[in-house]
Amino acid sequence: MVRKPDYNGEPFPYEPFFRGPVSKSDKPNVLYFDVLKCARATTEMDATLEGLQCPTTQVCVKKCPSEFWKLPPEAYAPDALPKDFFQQQYCDPRLDLAQTTMSVQDILNQELCPYFYTPSKPALGKCLPSFELQDVPPDFSLPGFASVDETVKHIKSAMDSLVSGFNFKSVGLRIFEDFATSWYWILIGLVVAMVVSLMFLLLMRYLMFVLLLALIVGVLVAAAYGIYYCYREYNHYRHSKLTLGDITYNSEFSVYLQVKETWLFFLVSLCLLEFVILLFLTHRGRRISVALALIKESNRAVSCVTTTLAYPLVTFLLVVISMAYWGITSLYLATSGAPVYHVAALNSSIANCSSITGSEICIPKEFSASLHPDCPSVRCVFFKYDDTDLFSRIAPYLQIYNLLAFLWCVNFIIALGQCTLAGTFASFYWAFSKPADIPPYPLLQAFIRTLGCHVGSLALGAVILTIFQVPRMLLEYLDHRFRDCRNFCCQFVMMSLKCCFWFLDKFLKFFHRNTYIMIAIHGNNFHVSGKNAYMLLRRNINRVVVLDCVTDTLLFSGKVLVVGLVGLLAFFFFSGRIRLPDDNFQIQLLHYYWLPVITVMAGAYLIAQGFFSVYSMCVDTLFLCFLEDLERNEGTMLRPYYMSGSLWRILNKS
Fold it and tell me: Are 472 and 449 in contact (CB under 8 A)?
């Protein structure tokens, strides 16, 4: 779209404007030619544009201006050469000052060069005026203003209006910049999390008791140290008069760490956590041996079918594909309307341009600046996407349908993974002589069998979960939408409904998980398998509650240990406490050093969740197989048990 200028002094040919300058690596900052025009609603045209655009030319520059400058009066002389007054680096790149035959006035009318600039500093990729009043030259008075003070006042006001236009995005932009700066090291942290998770799973196979003891002691010691540290910080800020009520929203988390209520909350939470862990170990310590037996048998199953550890990658890939399709479809629907362009004048201070209000609609390919010969700075600018046609009116309903389809796809993918893993581990359990009787490629066979025989059951289960997830999403939307206009009764009802649907969602996921296991074992449909799973668990409710809670607690503790170790390493690195040799990563470039730390910890948890979910599914499958084995067989020569001897000795005692 870039065209060479017309050196005969004719106006530049039309070019779509206000799309934003194309950023280059060597020119990272945007310079506004006339920042005074960025003040909102100063003209009828600006009010029509609704603050969506700053009606002035913007160019990318290598460095922001560092001095005060305005066009001197002698520049308006007929024989004045533009190259003697303007600087090429601050002019429109289409204009060549050394060769142009345009006059200074023509350049100003078409706004190809700024007629003034002030010392500026780059902020969020933009050159924003930054100076003190005492540093302003005494003759720096722009046309239309009576004094230097009035000029500075309007510049400051315009800058505030400009900043307020994207200030609500400043936190998001800073977060984006932090990700752009640290993404490489975030990926390294995620790789470390994957290695630590695999090492932990391998160690569980050989050093299970030692790891369990180290896990329990480590959690207790970490919680005790956290209690000590939080008490020390609370005692330090105990006499401070600053409270949470005195602090408004602040993106700097360190501000909240200077309030005693924050450390008191952490202190009480850690004390409760320590008490619950000690109480659990005191009353349910004997049941840990049962969980160890299940995990030991799971280790044996996973070691026989090691490909199951890679299956979470398949689930992750399918979820990413579904998410990408949902995002692309949503973006297409959001931009499905035709673009609307309005006629706008870049230099509305010219008398002949005052008639252009910005409300006239134009077509870019048919627009010509010659239609407005008295206003050389006229342009056809992008305004918004049309939302008045039929397709745009039904687009919100299509967005809802697209969201429901995405939720169903995710639930179906998760169900596919659970049923496939359950079929794999069930083939291990029901092999009388392990591993000789295990069928070849059990994971692949289970995957093909699931797709060939159980797709309808999985689809039905995904539909049920999606139906019950919609009210939760609706409640979250209503809670966010009417957060500022609710009384105590509405808050109570809202919290009660959210809690009820949360428990319902947890129950449905637990029920569906065991239903998929029964589908993989017997091959029945969803309803029959769900009834059989419910009746089997009901008949063994004591074992179910204890074993499921103990096993889930141990596996969750392993996730916490992995996330804590990786998060600790990430904290020391991104906070600058660990420096690598020949490290080119600059800590000072980060706006929020805790952002990559949280990202690494969240990614580490998802990675650990992927690997540990295989073990969790294995434990649940083997447990249901064990219950089925107890009810269907008697341990005799005619009807022998399929369980291992160690599993029988421990689980039968429970």
Answer: no
